[in-house]
From TrEMBL:
Listed transmembrane segments: none
Residue ranges constituting the Transglycosylase SLT domain according to the UniProt record: 112-158
Gene3D superfamilies: 1.10.530.10
Pfam families linked: SLT_2 (PF13406)
Protein name, per record: Lytic transglycosylase domain-containing protein
CDD domains: Slt35-like
Native species: Streptomyces cinerochromogenes
Biased composition (Pro residues): 233-251
Residue ranges with Low complexity bias: 280-290
Region called Disordered, residue ranges: 1-25, 199-290
């Protein structure tokens, strides 16, 4: 479903000389809370799906491309983004057409879906793969701990072994079916495998800082992607209808804004629920088949 969505195309800083590294490392630094979320997700997947061999650096690479590490770690102490991160309205044209599936609960839009959170899940996908990564009893796509664990489960779908380069590529393309996206994520993955720097979160805050829920009754124009983000190739397939019986929704609905300032990439819609036994289901083909 995701093929044509915009994503961050910045490549990792070069590690040439100590001076250059010190000057440019800011672009690849990991905010402390975001880094902790990736490591926690890696540890959980090592227990629940050990054959997947997920490394936290892959989550960091995707998090960098999807949201710039939650906009530089602008999260509250529990890991929730200070302001929600939303992708463009999926109304067709440059993007897939995805009518509303959540009543605006996550994205504030009752007409069309939008990708939500630091790892950019569309609401219907979150209904299948949402996870409670920080143990607070709720699954919130705006929380970096929850989103990182859900992304890890999605990447491990179908018993994938991510130490196999071909399966790693298939997992990344499952997030966004774009060769440019694959190359960009791969570049960041290699960067983080060779080293990383952890920095303080960009800002703190509390849940009170976040906007109140919104239920717009009229469609709003899709925000323009920022100048440093370019759309991927045109998708070759069209999305399928959302599943008839999605997984139970979280017990409490997260706060959402009326508009987003930074459109990000949505992930494709899987078709199977998570089983137990250490093997995750196959995410299936991209839901943008024609």
């Amino acid at each position: 479903m995701s093929g044509d969505a915009p994503f961050r195309t910045d490549l990792p800083p070069l590690r040439t000389t100590e001076e250059a590294s010190a000057h440019r490392v800011k672009g690849g630094a990991l905010p402390a809370s975001v880094f902790a979320a990736y490591r926690r997700a890696e540890e959980e997947l090592a227990r629940s799906a050990p054959g997947c061999r997920l490394r936290w650096q892959l989550l960091a690479a995707i998090g960098q491309v999807e949201s710039g590490q939650a906009r530089g770690g602008r999260v509250t102490p529990d890991g929730t983004t200070v302001t929600p991160i939303l992708g463009p309205r999926l109304t067709g044209g440059a993007f897939a057409v995805v009518p509303d599936t959540d009543g605006g609960a996550y994205d504030g839009d009752t007409a069309y879906d939008r990708a939500v959170g630091p790892m950019q899940f569309i609401p219907s996908t979150w209904a299948h793969w949402g996870a409670d990564g920080n143990g607070d009893g709720r699954a919130d796509p705006n929380n970096v701990h929850d989103a990182a664990l859900a992304a890890g489960r999605y990447l491990c779908a179908g018993g994938r072994d991510l130490s196999n380069p071909a399966e790693l590529d298939r997992a990344i393309l499952g997030y966004n079916h774009s060769e440019a996206y694959l190359r960009t994520v791969r570049a960041w993955y290699t960067y983080y495998l060779t080293g990383h720097r952890v920095v303080p979160d960009a800002s703190g805050g509390s849940r009170a800082d976040r906007p109140k829920p919104s239920r717009p009754t009229t469609a709003k124009p899709s925000p323009k992607p920022s100048e440093d983000r370019k759309p991927g190739p045109h998708p070759s397939r069209t999305p399928s209808a959302p599943p008839a019986s999605p997984s139970p929704a979280p017990s409490r609905k997260p706060d959402v804004p009326k508009e987003s300032q930074t459109p990000l990439v949505p992930v494709p819609e899987p078709t199977l629920p998570l089983p137990g036994g250490g093997v995750l289901p196959d995410a299936g083909p991209l839901t943008s088949d024609t």
